TrEMBL record:
Function of the molecule: Endonuclease that specifically degrades the RNA of RNA-DNA hybrids.
Gene transcribed to yield this protein: rnhB
Gene3D superfamilies named in the record: Ribonuclease H-like superfamily/Ribonuclease H
HAMAP family tied to this protein: RNase_HII_B (MF_00052_B)
Protein name: Ribonuclease HII
Amino acid sequence: MEVSYQQEYLEAGCDEAGRGCYAGPVFAAAVILPIDFYHPLLNDSKLIAPQVRVELRKYIEANALAFAVAQVGVEEIDTINILKASQKAMHLALAQLAPAPEFIAVDGNYFIPYKKLRHACIVKGDGKLANIAAASILAKTYRDAYMQRIHEEFPQYNWAANKGYGTLAHRNAIKHSGLCIYHRKSFNILSAQSELFED
């Protein structure tokens, strides 16, 4: 796995977590890695066991030149839509980096330009570039920790396990308990999922 997309400019990898969830904020991370960064287990966060992700987070934070994590909450997601909220979270993370990046490598096929910096969109970039993979690890682990905390407020949705994704158990809990303050109302969950519920 290459560390970065190019070597001419100081590059940040950027990725988000939680875009498709029914509940909770969307998180994004931006990471600048040294050119010799390496960890044998680093990969797309979705392919890594949770306990390994936590260890990788510690390693990334200890060895990155810079890293930052940001979130955009449910109310703003419902106001501006999830795609714009994901982009805003990335921009917020990038704004925290010191030193500031000169180039951005972004996971996926879409990015709203940030401060006129050069960027590249890389489909499945979290499995191709170490800086994007590192960003995916941070975004995922920070978001999972957040969902674990709010699980204590609303244990009936079992966010400790499903992290806000639309699992069958989560959908059934919504059927029986309704939506709470952490659910994304703009996702039209109740009507969109009604035919999928089980009694």
